[in-house]
């Protein structure tokens, strides 16, 4: 017993079994150990950041936004600064389907595309080429804001907006059977298929070239490929207003459906193919363009009737997808123009004789 004096109770030692003194001791020495006591008295909290329940009760749950506020007032003052942000003051990114520039916006207005909002300068709003279409857009529910050029600079992140920008509604794709029906109304139609084009700039350039050269439509896969975004519309420069695009779930099944409709499938591939200028493009044609990095997938190549390539003389191993599509499309229509009888030229030759 003499070796263990701590186990001997004395009259001066406090009774450790009394719960009242233990509770009072915990409150005085370390008030942060009992979160229920702190929650029950919010006035006595010296450091609210230690209590996660107090932070959750704050409607502004992003602490970085509170720290970035230069006003060092109380928490209610900081919350009032972030509780009602102004949506109109935020710049609109490409993901919000913003198009800008006179030609893309004017093409959208002329074709009565659904526009959610339109920003335009005073000088351009009363321009004869815009004024009539703006009135029609306003009747269709488009909100038109007359703004200064600096406002458009902010909305477009300093891009060349030319005094007008518009927020468009999501693009309305056409069904593949409807695209086939529209295309077959033309003699020897051409439909372009983009196999996994992920760059919206490439897809927009393909659409612009295909529409300009006379193709009837485009088919794109739903997954692992770019859709019709605002960037695609901007690069296409109004071509989408007169060009149909179908989006399919299964590209191989879509190619089989095109075969059954009478189309010949030509795919662009570097290996195992014939030079494009040696191929005789006749009848209804589907031109399949591969992705930027991998080209045509093996499944898509097996669905093609012919594989064609563009002979290259330099050290560059391949071409950009949109460039390859433009060169192949031009070869298709070059051959067809040579086989077309130009009656007006024949009449001039006969008169000279």
TrEMBL record:
Region (Disordered): 1-90
Biased composition (Polar residues): 41-50, 69-90
Keywords, sorted A to Z: Methyltransferase, Transferase
InterPro entries: Alpha/beta_knot_MTases, Ribosomal_eL30-like_sf, rRNA_MeTrfase_TrmH, SpoU_MeTrfase, SpoU_subst-bd, tRNA_m1G_MTases_N
SMART domains the record matches: SpoU_sub_bind
Domain called RNA 2-O ribose methyltransferase substrate binding: residue spans: 98-174
Entry's family note: Belongs to the class IV-like SAM-binding methyltransferase superfamily. RNA methyltransferase TrmH family.
Protein name, per record: 23S rRNA (Guanosine(2251)-2'-O)-methyltransferase RlmB
The species this protein was found in: Nostoc linckia FACHB-391
